[in-house]
Fold each of these.
Amino acid sequence: MVKINKLWFYMMCISMCLASCNITKNVPEGYFLMNSNKITVDQKISFKDDLTDILKLKPNQRILGMSLKLRAYNLIDSTKLSEKRLKANEKFKQNLVRKRLRYAKINNRRIEKAKRKGKEFYTEKIIKDSINDDLLFRERVKYKFGEDPKVFDSISFNKTNEQIYNYLRKRGYYNPKLNSSVIFDSLKRKVDILYELNLGKVFTIDSVVYSGDFLMIRNHGAYIKEIIDQGDPHPLLDLPFDIDLLDKHREDFAKDMRDHSYYKYSSSSIEYLADTSYKRMGVILNMKFNKQLEPFNENSDSLVVRPYRYTEINKVFFHLSDTIHVEGNFEDYCECLDFENKDYRQYFLTKESLRFAERKLSRSERKNGLTRNNIDSSRIIYVNYNGERPWIKPDILELNNYLEQNESYKDEYAARSIKGLSQLGLFSSIKPIFKEVDHSLSKNYLMDVHYFLTPSKKQSIAFDNRFTTSLGLLGANASVNYVNKNIFRGAEKLSISLGGGFETQTLVFNDNDENTKFPFNTIEFGPSIKLELIGLAPFPPASLSKRHRARTLISTGYNFEIRDIFDRQVFQLNYLWKFFVQKTQIFQLGLPGASVIKLVNINKSSSFQNQLDLLNDVFLNNAYSNQFIWQDAKATFEYSNANRKYRPGRKSFLGATISYNASFDAAGNLLYGLRNTQDTLNGQYQFLNLTYAQFVRLDNRYVLAKKINSSSTIHFKAEAGAGIPYGNTNTSLPYDYSFYAGGSNDNRGWRARSLGPGAYKYHLDTNRTLTQIGDVRIGTSIEYRFSLGSILKGAFFTDIGNIWTVNEDSREAQFKIQNVFKEMAIASGIGLRIDLEYFIVRLDLGFPIYNPAYSKGARWTFQDFGNRETYIQEGIDRFILPGDTPESARDRALYYLPRPFWPTLHFGIGYPF
């Protein structure tokens, strides 16, 4: 308490110092400090934030309504600071002179030593820092954190007015009226600026006419028709004559053309000519489509006009730049007559070449007598390499090429090819070159595609240390990781890791682990192995469309967890297939019949076992028992529209970023089907003398993020999940598949994993556990985030949710649909976030608002506020003993009852969702 009082005392002193500073003390004589600027507009507009950004005269940055940075700047006297800087520089110079003399003596000794040994060279000791660039603490406060006063300047004020007029003209407002008022406060030496805008009517585009290249005019008409057919409005008609809008339309159309095989089509080939009418405030827009200009030849500066034309892929080449597989000296190897890529001598030369033509026709392409044995000519590639064979299999390269032979060129496919090759993680450099070839025998342009690929380091060993937080539980971990890429020439990735660390886990009982002085109560360590394969093994890599980017993930791991109350060993084996659908969806499917195999062995201390026996809770006993989980099926689905590109005029729901995750697990069904061949123990079947769990589990998570303005956003999260134990499991879900509530990423009014289940009256249970688990979870959160400066961010939040059990429970914890709403716990609070660029440090203070565990009349924080008589009376009724007086009964209840609606402070890394 003394330390806390001292901290508050120091904070109060600092606050008083900052508040007592004369905020205009460093404002030059005759100038005024900018206090505020405000823009009022007579119409509702979407670009008010852009107008604010135009303003050149802005007040000093405020944090929590105070100009803390300006006050910090004013707090330190510049003259005294300059004197301290001169003294520091003088001291540095004196030290530098002494250091030079000392280094000279050292170098002389090294020279003499080198001469005695007959050496011509010696290692010279050099002064690294000859300039004093270390800032004093006061300099950091004044110049790094602090901010010099922002003063009124008439020149900047007049220029701002001009820029507002220019910006409004760009947005289609040609007759605005601006009344800028400057209000001086001579006593406080402050100034406020008010910008009053009367926009008038906006010019709109009432018709579009075309001129120029007929082919592009026709393509633009088809482009507009496609937009309208999809139910979207015309991207130009009846919209403001906005320069940014016109530029965006030009860019969108140019990209669409490049994605429809018009290589190098540029937005600069489109000109706008406008005919305005002040009478009707309308614009006749003339779109002029020009042909492309290109050099006459490679060495010429003169330009010639050439029409845009459809472009097809002639051939596709991969150049593998590497000498690893070359036997002997590469210089001798290069003494050959010719190279396959002699036209590209600026890149690494390759000598050998092969033609890969092994892809068969798909079922949809077998027409006109073609069969499954015919080669797909569009998927032929040419691989140039050195040595006996390419260091990566050609079929892997072909799987990541979307610019296929004899098919049309598309910008989108070129970007997708580079992205696919990059995601293999095998190349340090990927250089695509597109070269037009002779097209005299074709009506379209022809182009060869060349990929120059430089390999990255094949093997690596790295040391990784991390500080983690989950649900408010801290951890410090370290690991040694070995990675071997392309181990079988098929872009495989083998990862072997040995790691361990310390973690803080929630206590099971109040008296567990309380004697330890170490901040972490759990030690974990163990190895893991992961192999990532291309395609859906054991099927061929090309069994799925290349667009799905299919992967097979095989992993195994062993984890040893040590706590005072138990030791826990976990072995797990996973076999998963992963593939993508477009840019928005990711699917993962487990190997049918054996997706995940997991064994959990727990050795409990005698004291912990005695407490479990005393409590006699079947759910808790199941959670802390040996478990064998054989998952027959596992599926996960991830959706995010963050990378989705929308057509002009379209946007996502509410213009927000949306993500949705779902996971499904089913375990024990295959083994239960073989139960006639198995032994039983306590009514449960066993496989290999191990009792296995049987359940199904589904979990869903929906997150929406919406930008309000340049400095604030609103975020919403909804979660719903349930697991049903049945068959060979008659109690609850295994511990690792159970649901929790409470913590820094969940309901922040409660400590991690302490909320629920249901209406369980934990405050009346002297044998209560601190960790609560359930089979069902429902929760939702809403959070408003805002900026408090360049580093500090703030938030207001509300969390609602709880967990329940599926089976009947004596604690009123069973899930019943009619009780869901009245058993949802509610908390609200405030948060402070520090954005350190690489990660975010988060502090959230959550206040319980509604606690379903309390009796009627005491569940809301405002009920019985001040005395909590209903809550205390419930405790008296529970803990009263025969012979108690009213005073002693009340004292006993207050001794056992936890303090109601007490706020919880959470520490976290990163945002909660």
Amino acid sequence: MRILKIGILFVICHLTFVISSHGATWLDPSYKWKTIETPHFSIHYPKQLEEIAKGFAPEAEGIHNRLSPLFRHTPEWKTNVVLVDNYDYGNGMTTVIPNPLVILYVTDLGSNLSPYSYKEWLKYVFLHEYTHVLHLDTIEGGAQLTKLLFGRILFPNALSPRFIVEGLAVYMESHYGSGGRVFNPRFEAQMRVDILEKKLKTIEQASMTTIYWPGGNLSYIYGAYFIEYLAEKYGEEKLFRLSREYGDYILYDGIESCFRVIFGKKLADLWQDWLADLDKKYADYKTKEIVPTFTSSGYYNLQPAWSDNSDDLYYTHRDFGSYPLIRRLNLSSGKDTKVAELSAFDDSMSILKNRLLFSKPQYYNNFYYYKDLYLMDLASSKISRLTFGERTADPAFSPLEDEFVFTKLNQGGRSLWLYDLKAKIRRQIGDEDPSISYFAPVFSPDGKKIAAAKKSSGDQSIYLLDYTKGWEKKIADFGLCGNPFFSPDGEYLLFDSDRSGTGNIYAYRLSDQKIFQVTDVPGMAIMPKVSPDGKKLAYVNYSSRGYDIAVVPLDPLQWVEPDEKRYRPPAVADIKPLELSVSPKGYYPFPALLPKLWMPLSVVDENGRHTSIFTTSFDSLTHHAYEMQLSYDAKAERPIYEIYYANNQLFPQIFLEAIDFPVNYRWDNNSKIYWERYLSQAVYASFPKYALFSEYDSQAITCSFENINLNNITSLDALTAIPATGNVRGVGLGYSYSNSRTYAVSISPEDGIDLYLSSKFYSKALGSDYSFTNYSISSNQYLPTPVPHHILAFSETGFLSRGEQLSQSDFTWRYLTLRGYPTTYFSGSKGGKATLEYRFPVAYMENGLSYGLTFFDRAFGKFFFDVGGSTFGNVSNIYLSKSAGGEISLSTVNGFGYVPIVLTLGYAVGMDPGGEGKLYFGISSYGQKITKGGVPGDAKRSIVL
């Protein structure tokens, strides 16, 4: 009963591009939410973003007016748009189930790694996200019947290869707005090097999130240029025709037949045509020399920072198989060592006299994920935090030692600041226009000037500032420029730019204002850093592996004057905002909270099978969420229901449940069936806390009250053993803590602990007919082994019940499962078990069938040893039984990423009385957690920008 309902909900949640990583309280309860209503949108925002929301509303309507006719579609419900500013990274997310909903972070997406040329961030990101809404929400022909019968539950275009969904959105952002990624040289480099190095991913991999570089970005990169090819060769209209006609799942037998009709070729053949076209396009790059690098791991190796002795390079490292790091590379020995595990990424780092300045994000006040500044003593590895929740980044030491420059984020803009380490005083310098963004500031060797990349209305150029005299001037304005750095003699200012259509490093000579090209790479060269002795240049080089650190001699004699020819993206007609007047009002969760989908299920009671209806919904802010299964037994004149509700509007989180359900037990030694009417009302209050002892741990304290009523449906006269009936009422207290870590390559958590403690007290003083107390504990510890991703996992569970005993299970006694023994062999009011498992990956297949309809992800195995037992008597009476065995599992992802399934084959042997040798097979899912109240979390797949 419960399993079936969760299974259906699981499928529904995977058929949406969920925003529900926000399934818990993710918004500060102190926010005062407002709403602006326009003809096609409900725009929700905290009061402090009101001016931004007012400016965004006309832009949103302008985008609808431009895009809706192209798709020939307008959603039947208004699209809800939520503007938030609690996260220091730019992004957008979209779902169409149960309501069209877009979440936009007002933080600019631009960074030291990926500068952008869009003029307005929110307009740019919304154009991408609203493309998803119009594309996925399109339902035509026969699919309309499904919608009429079951509501907003099935969207055929969502069941497309991911590279089509994301590729179309990137295409639209590029051709109907400024700064789109199709025409961004740094984005294109990621496509080009795969062609040049013959490291192409398969079409199935392009539809998934793979463990190989570039991971989740693959569908964006390949998808964007594949859709661009289709539009150029066959006409843009066919892209919109694909959206309309595939929106009718009855019209075509899958994506393949749809492509054959619209484009006249199979999708696989079009893919090969596109790759051949790219091979010709990039032919001129094949003569460029491949750059040797000091690191070779790929993924992300960024922001090199030289030690004072010019022999050590510190840099940030991220991959898909370990926690982010700061590492140290010694050039003389080639030794590469870990300095610290922390989530620094592409913000600047700076070293002076054995001190390292850096920034990293961390939860702040439980609801914000903000960057702050830190200072590390490299001799002792001691780290001191300099700012708290101030949204600071890109620190750089002054040669004057006790001062540094940094940037500060505020509602999208990045201002420039100085910090006095001795006086602990901050003061703003540079342009104070809040729409301006500064990146990667750096001091000149004499400490008198600062160079920085400055972004203003689509242009990002290098500026030189004299902060003592209050002036600044632009010194390099071709292409997107970033990451300036002075040579130690102050003669040159190096920076990266995509001036030629390829990201390369350039040098500006301050004495005569002349610019030279320093590198000429086939991929991309960024983030230049000159060694303190002035002899070496370190920079980040891009290849098909990702980003690695290269080190070359600093030789100005080898530099050349840049070609006069400059890359300029094609001009795009800007979408004009729609003139309208707006009147903000208070936030109201309806109509988004109204049920928009329903599914027929069934329930069974003593009178047979009955049809039930399942529905679920949540409002735009996930303040409220619910799921319900409703039925009625006409013969018994009795309702049957399960209702769960979550309130994330307050702190603590509140969960409510109400259940009236028939339950059957095998009774009197399995000779009879006993039917019980189980009625329950419960309330839970949860207090989550993030980043307690580290940047990645969390805890939650949960208080609960339960009121359960047990009524017999079966006549008690027919039974020998009399079941418990009446009220069971009590309170509970639970505690959970987790600091376990899992990575994209992992087949299990790889380190840390997951702990859960629970105590429940049922008392006649609370109106219960029974008094008893239950205690339970569950713990999992994970230990890495010397072999990567091979894990030793220890788990322990225990339970204890004291007081009156009820006949039915799961109140005062329970079954304990031990592999290698019958499921109901162990039972008692006290018990426990311990498990030791050796878990290991077998293979990463990373390929599939039908363009990602079925994707074989990885195979993994485990050997295990279990020991446990239970009793109704004293704990000393527990006989510990043992078992051992092994399992092999195959992880698959189906339905273009929405339905992950794990197939497991195992064999276990019980070593003590009652044990048996047993071969078993299991089917399970992963990646989706359903919390109380029906809010889905930790989704395997979501659309993000």
